[in-house]
Amino acid sequence: MTKPLSIPLMCHPSAKRPEALAVQVYRDLLEAVRTGRLGDGSRLPSSRAAAQALGLSRSTINLAYELLRAEGVIEVRQGAAPRVIAPVTGPPRKTAKAVRIPSQRGRQLGEVRRDSATAQALGRMAPGEPSEALFPADEWARALRRAARRQHGPVSSYATPHGLPELRRVLAGRLATDRGLAVDPEQILITTGTQGSLALAAQVLSDAGDRAALEDPGYPGARAAFLGAGLHLHAMPVDAEGARPDAVPKDTRLIYLTPSNQYPMGIRMSHARRVAFLNMAQQTGALILEDDYDSEFLWRGREIAALAAEASAGQVIYMGSASKVLMPALRLGWMVVPPDLVDPLRTAQRNLGLMANLHAQHALADMMHTGRYRAQLKRIARVYEGRGRALAQALSSLDGVSASQPDGGVQVTALFDGRLTEDAALAAVSAQGFQPAKLSDYCSDVANCGLVIGFADATPERIAAFVDALRAL
């Protein structure tokens, strides 16, 4: 007869473990069987002997044995030691882990590393980020509280995945007065931000293998959205008048533009270029996706209408968001689409699950309707204008660096003439806690060298420290 095993070698019950003691013994013995340390026919000690060996009560051991018996792991007979009846499996075999790779579309989507281009390392003076310190926390909290206490009826479910009617109505009014864009509220879709709008448009309005034209340098998020839809990308060089329409192939399906404030160069597209793009899109059947980037902040020159306001043939889809006036993480954006595209885009938005938070939509509509949104915009615009001008002036004092005074936006692009390298400059300012982005990360074919620097949180002290770090190079 085989000798019963030494149970303390298999079980390690402890009061520090979360399970009951009986469950601990049961699991330890079950694991021993599973790993082959207890083979078929192995004898367990009697409940009395096991209790003495482990310093537990006999009832605890009996419960553990009963759990094992119920699973068919041991056989318990009157007057005999419990016996393991698990099949002989031997030591667990080591198997190679399966190597899983994304699909071709998934690999393309992963090519765009936006964490470097948009500087998501939570450092200071990152491009594209508003100042969290200027967020109207109290007003937003009150508006959100009112929204949460309401009974919303059908819209609390899936009745209006394309957006809250109240918000679409107030947005239609704002777009008419602020951007010269007269639209029916039914043409507006509330999205999860401009990135969500781009992804939705790319999925619905193109097929894999179609061509999309993007500004170069330009917004990496647009590249990510189009690659995720399986599109072939074509770079449009950007000069002093904005993107060049003569660089767009005739078979292009989607054209992405930031005409009001080109990102990241800060150029406002000339009227001649705007007309040329509209005419080309009308003639070729291409759709222009207008990202009205940072159009809220304008400090120099005459205010101009959105490009979509001049599109008489419905060749432009307009996109905007509340990211800079409020906060990017609120994920609130909107798109204005031609009437014939409303239904397919609404259906796709519902099917893709790209719906904005209901309470956040109510809070935004509340702030816009009462004028608090506009007041917030005016307040931060004054602050951002001063900080942007101060940063550009300070950068221009450096040898080998040029930076134009910003017309708007929340970032300045500093161009290097060759005496500075992007890597050295980024390392120097990162050591001081700053997190701008390399201009080359925004480029496809062009070879620009410099840094894209956010100024929404650029206090005088931070500007001085940033410039001193570059000057030391």
Radius of gyration (Å): 31 Å
Return the average pLDDT rounded to an integer.
89
Give the second-level CATH assignment, the architecture of the largest domain.
Answer: 3-Layer(aba) Sandwich
- The CATH first-level class of the largest domain comes to Alpha Beta
Task: Provide a descriptive summary of the structure in words.
The protein is α/β, with parallel strands linked by helices and 473 residues long. It folds into 3 domains: 7-84, Arc Repressor Mutant, subunit A, CATH 1.10.10; 106-118 and 134-374, Aspartate Aminotransferase, domain 2 (3-Layer(aba) Sandwich), CATH 3.40.640.10; 381-471, Aspartate Aminotransferase, domain 1, CATH 3.90.1150.10. 37% of the residues lie in helices and 13% in strands. It has helices at residues 21-34, 47-54, 58-70, 104-109, 114-117, 137-148, 165-179, 194-205, 220-228, 271-284, 342-352, 358-370, 372-396, 422-430, 460-471; strands at 74-75, 83-84, 188-191, 211-216, 232-239, 242-243, 252-257, 287-291, 316-321, 333-336, 401-402, 411-416, 437-438, 450-454. The strands form 3 sheets. The protein has an 8-stranded mixed β-sheet with strand order 3-10-9-8-7-4-5-6, with helices on both faces. Strands 11-12-14-13 form a 4-stranded antiparallel β-sheet, with helices on one face. A hairpin with an 8-residue loop joins β11 (401-402) and β12 (411-416). α2 (47-54) packs across α3 (58-70).
